[in-house]
Each structure stands twice: as structure tokens, then as C-alpha cells.
Design a protein that fits this description.
The protein has helices spanning about 15-25, 35-45, 55-60, 90-100, 105-120, 130-135, 150-160, 170-185, 205-215, and strands at about 5-10, 30, 65-70, 75-80, 80-85, 125, 140-145, 195-200. Helices cover about 50% and strands about 15% of the residues. A hairpin with a 2-residue loop joins β4 (about 75-80) and β5. The chain binds 2'-deoxycytidine-5'-monophosphate (DC).
Length: about 220
């Protein structure tokens, strides 16, 4: 039986940084499920499909083939044969991903793919519904959170470091809106699994958080 660590939490809580580090230290495969929802969002943008038209998105998503590839241990997302790992990291795609991830057919397809990945590999998987839906029997479930202000500052730093224009107030507002949408959607809303350990990273360094989670896993 493969080993599974599930990390859920709101946008910008540090899930991907922590999950990546943890996976490396434990020699597990890191699976970033948000990247898969982002790829579906990107597909709709590229093909001019209205992301608010649920039926159109669900129909079009059947033609969006999403897979993961690992190059030197780093996850790359492939959308219909194209490596879109960089293209999915814009604010436009973040918003589209949040909208399309609320549609049942999109979730059904991606959840099936995620479960399959975890069957054959030891994984650290991060997302919103990993502990509650995708890997309900995970060996360890973490709910990683931080205040909206701290998360906004982290996102701002990330974007400006890449040379993208960013407005901190706007980012914090967007984060709050996305939290609200992710937490109140009908299917698989973001919530702490009953058996998950909550870790608030607002005042913790990356090393602190990794050490805490490793301590819980050992
Ligand atoms: O973690 P992220 O910001 O890359 O995720 C992008 C969007 O995808 C986010 O708004 C919520 C959604 N998502 C989801 O609904 N379920 C997941 N397991 C992962 C992400």
C-alpha cells in the first residue's frame, strides 16, 4: 500500500512550498492538484469558452487532456501535449480555476486522475479536498492555513519576483473572494477534515512548518 500525506488549505497558505519540500525529504512524489484545475481554466481561456457557462465548460473539459510529468523531480503539467506549467501561474488563470473547479464533471474527472496517481506512488498531495474526498484514508492529513493578509503578502512577493505587476490590496481582496468561493461551493468545499491537524503558518518559517509536519508523520 502506498503512503499518502494530504495537505489542504486556502490559497497562499504555503501548501505547495511545504508539500514540495516534504516530498523531497521523504522521497515521495509531490502532486499539485491545483495545477490540474488551473490547466482546465487555462483551456477555457485559450478556447474562448465562457467560464461561467457550466454546461459549455463541462463539455469542453472532455477535450482537455491533463497529465503530469516529472522532470528532475519537478512536476510539469501537460495540457493536450503542451507543457503549460508556466502559463497556469497568472492571476487570470487563478480566477478561472476557482470558477471551473466548482463544476461537478470537472471535479469528477480530476479526482479520478488524482486517486489513480496515489495508488502507485507514495505521495504528498496538496489541494482543497484531498483529505476530505480524494484520499480519505491518507496516513496524515494537514490543514495548512495563515491569515489572508500574510497570504496576500506572500502572493505579492511571488508575482513581483517574476516581474509581474501586482497590487497588494487587490491581491488580498481576491484571496478573500477565492476563499469564500472555495469554502461555500456545493461540491467538495474547502474544509478541514475531521481527522486533519490544523497548522497555522502565519508566524512560522518554512523550516518550522516542514519540521512540524515531519514530526507528525514519523
Ligand atoms: O492551489 P491553487 O491556487 O493552485 O488552486 C487553484 C484553484 O483550484 C483554487 O481556486 C481551488 C481549486 N482547487 C480545488 O478546487 N481543489 C483542489 N484539490 C485543488 C485546487
Amino acid at each position: 500500500m502506498s503512503k499518502q500525506i494530504a495537505i489542504d488549505g486556502p490559497a497562499g497558505a504555503g501548501k505547495s512550498t511545504i508539500a514540495k519540500r516534504l516530498a523531497k525529504e521523504l522521497s515521495f512524489v509531490y502532486v499539485d492538484t491545483g495545477a490540474m484545475y488551473r490547466s482546465i481554466g487555462l483551456y477555457m481561456i485559450k478556447n474562448g469558452i465562457d467560464i461561467h457557462d457550466k454546461d459549455a465548460v463541462e463539455k469542453a473539459s472532455e477535450k482537455a487532456d491533463v497529465s503530469l510529468k516529472y522532470i528532475d523531480g519537478t512536476q510539469h503539467v501537460i495540457l493536450n501535449g503542451e507543457d503549460v506549467s508556466d502559463q497556469i501561474r497568472t492571476e487570470e488563470v487563478s480566477k478561472a480555476a476557482s470558477v471551473v473547479s466548482a463544476y461537478p464533471q470537472v471535479r469528477k474527472n480530476l479526482t479520478a486522475l488524482q486517486k489513480k496517481l496515489a495508488e502507485s506512488e507514495n505521495v504528498v498531495m496538496d489541494g482543497r479536498d484531498i483529505g476530505t474526498c480524494v484520499l480519505p484514508n491518507a496516513d496524515l492529513k494537514i490543514y495548512l492555513t495563515a491569515s489572508a493578509e500574510v497570504r496576500g503578502k506572500r502572493r505579492f512577493k511571488e508575482l513581483t519576483a517574476k516581474g509581474e505587476k501586482a497590487d497588494l490590496t487587490e491581491i488580498v481582496e481576491d484571496i478573500k473572494k477565492r476563499d469564500e468561493a472555495d469554502m461555500t461551493r456545493e461540491i467538495s468545499p474547502l474544509k478541514k477534515a475531521d481527522d486533519a491537524v490544523e497548522v497555522d503558518s502565519s508566524d512560522m518559517t518554512i523550516d518550522d512548518v516542514v519540521a512540524r509536519i515531519k514530526g507528525l508523520y514519523d
